[in-house]
Amino acid sequence: MVVLVVSQPPAGDKTPPQHIQNTTDSTHKPTYVAQLQVNSSTRLIFKIELKPIKFIHGEPTIEFTMDEVNEFSIEEGINQAVILKFSYGKPNLHELRKVIPKQLDIKGHCNIGQLEFCHLLIRFDLNEDFVQVLSGNSGYIKFNGEEFLFRTFLWTIWFDPKEETSKTLTWISFPHLPPNLFAKKSLLSIASAVRKPVALDKATQERTRPSTARVKVILYLLDKHPEKISYSSWTKIQAKLLSIIKGLFMIISQGIVFTVNDKGMMKIVVVCFSARLVLKIRMMQRIKVHMWSNIKVMQGRL
Hints:
Number of helices: 8
Oligomer: single chain
Shape: globular
Radius of gyration: 34 Å
Organism: Solanum pinnatisectum
Strand order of the largest sheet: 4-5-3-7-6
Number of strands: 13
Strand content: 15-25%
CATH superfamily of the domain at 66-154: RRM (RNA recognition motif) domain
Protein name: DUF4283 domain-containing protein
Largest sheet: 5 strands, antiparallel
CATH class of the domain at 66-154: Alpha Beta
Domain DUF4283: 78-161
Pfam families: DUF4283 (PF14111)
CATH architecture of the domain at 66-154: 2-Layer Sandwich
């Protein structure tokens, strides 16, 4: 039998007890869990398929498709990113991270970083915050009794701090649009003929102004923009019938290329019938597009 004798301190001694450590192994060894975490992160790196490197004129070159570039933007959260430009000074970045979410009424999380001395890059989790801040165009940040002017720009993959962006947000309206086309899918599809839609105004969402629909889109200032948009509507039966007739027309027209006989007459009949059908069931309508912006464009640079 082994008896362990532990000496007790005197009753009057209030020295706290000391924990005895094992000093037999002075070297620190990582735990098994830590080793697994390191190995898993290492395996993850090696699982990524790297792009091949090409040499063009002696320089290593990596090629990415635009789809891949867009995927990178989504992965990094900059598909909903806004640039704030301070041309006349600004508080330090630490203070801006505190005051910007409050003063710009940002509801969700946002990541604020500094691109360049005058430019901040803000990434938004909520599309609502992204549209709201970008729509503001310009404003002031108040700090320590001072006001610092800023302008907002849409971040693009071609962003250059030395150049002004060619994109802006603007409202477009569709007067006298049929009420059934106020549905979100149809309205956004129609607006996409102008440019990428990002939001509907409140009256359009609540259906309180059936005379006109308004959509906010990201507009390229250097592009030409349509004044009218055409749309067509078909029933499923009409579309199926037209598809059958077109297919029949293709078969007949291919079979009578070098012949002029009764089949040739059949070809003419099919062509005329198909044309009449298209004119009868295709309902072409034009939608007028009124475009304006709450942003004063080309009024000088800050």
